[in-house]
Structures are given as C-alpha cells and as structure tokens.
C-alpha cells in the first residue's frame, strides 16, 4: 500500500494535492483508493475500490474539497490482510473522545489478531477485518491521553512492519515501525505545507522537497508550530530490501539509498557473480530495468529493448487470481525483433511463483531467441512476507519447494541464476535490511494467528 498526508498552515486545495500524491503512489496498490480532508471543522471522507483516477473523478474529488483545508491523508491499497472489500478500504475513520480520526496504513501488524481477540473479549467492537482498525481502536481506548501519547502507546502494543498516517481535524501524525521495515518520508512545500508519504516520488508530485525519512520507531506530528518528533521505540533498523529490489518507484530514495542506483548496482553485482556468454541483455520491463542496465554495464554485453510493455497494462502480480495474472502477462508483454537469432540474458527483479517468468521465456523463444539465460536481481524467495508485501503464501513460492535447477527446468531457461544474499546487501549498501523472504529471519516477529477472515 501507499500512504500520504498533508498539514498546511495556510489554506490549500488539499483534496487536489492529496489526489496528486496518491497518483504518484499508485504503483503501491491498485485495488482501492481513499482520502480524508478537514478544515478544522468539517471532516470529509471518500474511498472506494479502484484506481485513484477511477475513484476520484471530478465530482468525487469536488465532494471532499474544502476551500480552507488544513489536514488531509490518502491511501492506495492492495490487500495483504482483510479481503478486497469496500468496507476494508482506507482511510479508516472513527469517532473518539479526541474527535474524529482518520488512519491510513501500509504494512502489517503481526500481533494484530491477538490484540484484536483480547479486545473483543473486553467488549470492543470491530466493523472490518482490517488490522488498521485494531490500531485505531487502541488509540481510541487511551481516553486519558492526548492523541500523540495515545498513538505512541498503541505503537508499543503492536508489532510488525508498518508506516501510518493519522489525522484529526487539526493535526497530522506519521509513524514508522521500530525497525523501519516500511518506508515513510517527510517533505515540505515552499508555502510551508508539510507532507508525509511512503516514497519521495509523491512529495515531488505535490511540489514538496524531501526533508528526511521518518526514523525507525519515530512518531512525527505537525501542528501550528511545525514539525515535532518523538522517538517511541527505535530498534535496529532493517528496512525492507524489496522496496529497492522491486516495490519502490525508480525515482524514489529510501533511507538515503536511491532506488534506481541500487538496482543498477544489483545488476552489476549479478553480472560479476553469475556471468554468461550472450549477445544481448534484455530487461523484463519495468521492474527489471535498473538491474539490466547494471548487468549490461558490468558485462559489456549490449543492452536492448527486447520486450515491449503495453503502457496501459497495470502491474500483473497484483491481479487477484492466478488465471487473471496469466492473461495479464500477454496483455502486458510482447517480444521485439531485438531477440531474434540472439543469445539473450533476460533480467528480472524476482521470481515469485514462476508463472510469469515461464511465459516470458516462452515468448522469447517463439520470437526466435536461440538461448535464454535468466538472471534475477533478488535471491530466491523462500519465505512469505508478514510485513505488507504480497509475496504469496509459502506453498505458492516456487523457490520454497524447488531447487534453482528445478526452477530453471520449470521456466524453460537455458541457465538460471540469482544474486546472492550478501551480494544484494552490498548492492543496497545500507547498514541493515530485512531479507526475511530470502532467509526466514524475521526482524520484527512473526504472527501467531494468521487466518484473518475466519475470525469474528
Ligand atoms: P513470477 O514469474 O514469479 O510469476 O513473477 C515474477 C514477476 O512478478 C517479477 O517480474 C516481479 O517484478 C513481479 N512482481 C510483481 N509484484 C510483485 C510483488 O508484490 N512481489 C514480488 N515479489 N514480485 C512481484
Ligand atoms: Fe520486505 Fe521480504 Fe522483509 Fe517482507 S520479508 S519486509 S518483502 S524483505
Ligand atoms: Mg516485474
């Protein structure tokens, strides 16, 4: 998912700016979109299933617009917990003794179901199966505390990987999990308006410049006096490596590491670790682009445009069913003449289920590639993500049940090789990172209960 928030000391068209910020984060979730806007008195909410441009047509955007808006938040969703239903879309709102609150959330709380079960036994009410509601309920319960203290208390209670934006009628809060697994950045516009976003690309979209990342375990809030910070629970930083491998946009920079540059380094590392004799380096667009540039640069094999990507097709992975994903690959990708008669090094960022990869190899062979050497800029994904990236259940992960040689055979490549885990760490270059989906070592814990839709 993607989250976005604005706090403006001067009246601003925040509905429009929030729309722009959400649009820049569309790659982080295409299932639902929503926003809240307040002017200190009125509090408007609109959300629905669909893309940002589908949900917010002119009429709908007008309905949340407030001429003197001061605070807003936005969310784009793809479901990791809670099914893809309208009532599960975000922001979630509720009325508390601190006034009406809106929350938008990226990531997962691994102990949300335990906390939720406890709260149900104490008589709490829940309207959704969304784990964001647990967070909101925890905040509402601390009726003796002010909003910032109550939010900090809720952060201490929930574990996992998350980045959230929370608004009242008059204030904006942002907070990031203790390990900083999910990203969150702070920006500011020239008119003084503050912005929070999952990625810097959304700051640039609203004319804000990147000020800094929210730190792991940090809570920031904005009011008339500007930016305030509270270190609630900082731990060893382990930001999600998948943000750099695949998820984040290539014009974003997270925790000081530029996404595009890190992908180039991954490709260069891959070329050093897993070289091959070939005629042309071809990326699987768009996610394999950076790594392919790096592989070509390091190996000296020419880079070429071997796969056309239909720009009107969305991200295939996020299509909800296997069949939908398979059909969407053909809608999306088609080989060009650049591969005919060539030994191709095909570069992609990841192999998850292996189904897309198999179809792509097939497409290249049909188009006349004489050899297809598959190189992957992430290590084999052997474990599920519990922190908000939908890398599928363990049994669907092809690398959790197959060796590299078996995967090679399955996808029909001449050779197949992945970047090593240390090689990936080196390419990203940060101090720490989460690589749990490659190693099974979960820095922010694992869930005890995991079957959300079976619960009350
Ligand atoms: P597969 O061959 O495993 O079916 O598909 C691999 C492709 O899925 C890669 O091109 C990768 O970019 C893409 N992909 C799309 N969304 C996701 C996601 O959420 N997680 C992961 N791990 N890969 C994804
Ligand atoms: Fe990212 Fe993988 Fe860790 Fe999930 S398990 S947060 S996808 S590195
Ligand atoms: Mg891809």
Automatic annotation (TrEMBL):
Q: Which gene encodes it?
A: purF
Q: Tell me, what's a Pfam family for it?
A: GATase_7
What family does the database annotate? In the C-terminal section; belongs to the purine/pyrimidine phosphoribosyltransferase family.
Which CDD domains does its entry note?
A: GPATase_N, PRTases_typeI
Binding of Mg(2+), residues: 287, 348-349
Q: Which residues form the active site?
A: 1
The protein's job, in short, is: Catalyzes the formation of phosphoribosylamine from phosphoribosylpyrophosphate (PRPP) and glutamine.
An example Gene Ontology molecular-function term: amidophosphoribosyltransferase activity
Q: What is this protein called?
A: Amidophosphoribosyltransferase
Keyword check for Repeat, yes or no.
Answer: no
Q: Report the cofactor remark.
A: Binds 1 [4Fe-4S] cluster per subunit.
What sequence ranges are listed for the domain Glutamine amidotransferase type-2? 1-225
